[in-house]
Amino acid sequence: QIQDLTFLIKNYYLTELYLNNNELTDISGALKHLCSLQILFLHNNELKKLGKTVKELKGMISLQTLNLFQNPLAYDPDYRLYVIYFLPSVQLLDRKLVTQRERESALHLYNPKRTWVMQSVAFGRRVDTSLETMVESSRCTQPVRGPIMPSGNGLLCSFCRVPFEDPEDAVLVRATTRSLMQFSSVDWNKVATCQERRLKNKEEPLEKLTVQFR
């Protein structure tokens, strides 16, 4: 029948805490100092506010096992993904392992911008929006056109060393140039060892295979 957690104020080094089957309605300000906590059972209580409850647990960087089921907050339709996203250290939630697919779904739901960046850049996947569409949207009503080369002085693209009258043309050319990817490989069986280099007066150049693609 525990309703108040103020008695935990000095228990900084707790690693396991079992508060299940009580009458807790709010844990705000009562647990955030427990940075060493690894296991926390809060199931079968009266916790109603998901945001406040998760906010209290955010500082627990060592928390791996968490039970919150049989609380009113657990009936929120996005409850599980919300907890997974804001408490990334938790590995076992409500007696069920957190999967990689759930982490990806939580990231997509609560941080769609980061998901878009990861899919389009980090893993080299194609973005649904084409380059021309992006240029059109950035220029509003102006149609997409080719770069205009000036006859006199103009803005110099520091990457490609080609002058442009319109700064956006320089940005466009640089963006398409930077999308080039290059991979190189070497046959290490043909690379001379340190001893072989000392015995030879002249070192032979490496045979390197380079592949470029966009």
What would you say this structure looks like, in words?
The chain has 214 residues and is α/β, with parallel strands linked by helices. Among the domains are: 6-112, Ribonuclease Inhibitor (Leucine-rich repeat, LRR (right-handed beta-alpha superhelix), Alpha-Beta Horseshoe), CATH 3.80.10.10; 175-213, no CATH class. Helix content is 30%, strand content 14%. The chain has seven helices and nine strands. Strands 1-2-3-4-5 form a five-stranded mixed β-sheet, with no helix packed on it. Strands 6-7 form a two-stranded antiparallel ribbon. A two-stranded antiparallel sheet has the order 8-9. Strand 3, helix 2 and strand 4 (92-93) form a beta-alpha-beta unit. Residues 129-161 have low confidence and may be disordered. InterPro entries: Leu-rich_rpt (IPR001611), LRC72 (IPR042655), LRR_dom_sf (IPR032675).
At a glance:
InterPro entries: Leu-rich_rpt, LRC72, LRR_dom_sf. The chain has helices at 50-57, 79-86, 100-110, 112-122, 131-138, 167-178, 194-199; strands spanning 16-18, 39-41, 65-67, 92-93, 96-97, 155-156, 163-164, 181-186, 208-213.
Q: Overall 3D geometry?
A: elongated
Query: Reading side by side through the largest sheet, how are the strands ordered?
Result: 1-2-3-4-5
Low-confidence stretches: 129-161
- What characterizes the major β-sheet? 5 strands, mixed
Q: Please identify, by name, the CATH architecture of the domain at 6-112.
A: Alpha-Beta Horseshoe
Strand content: 5-15%
H/E order of the elements? EEHEHEEHHHEEHEHE
What is the helical fraction, as a range of percent? 25-40%
Text of the CATH class of the domain at 6-112: Alpha Beta
CA-CA gap between termini = 64 Å
Question: What is the H level of CATH, i.e. the homologous superfamily of the domain at 6-112?
Answer: Ribonuclease Inhibitor
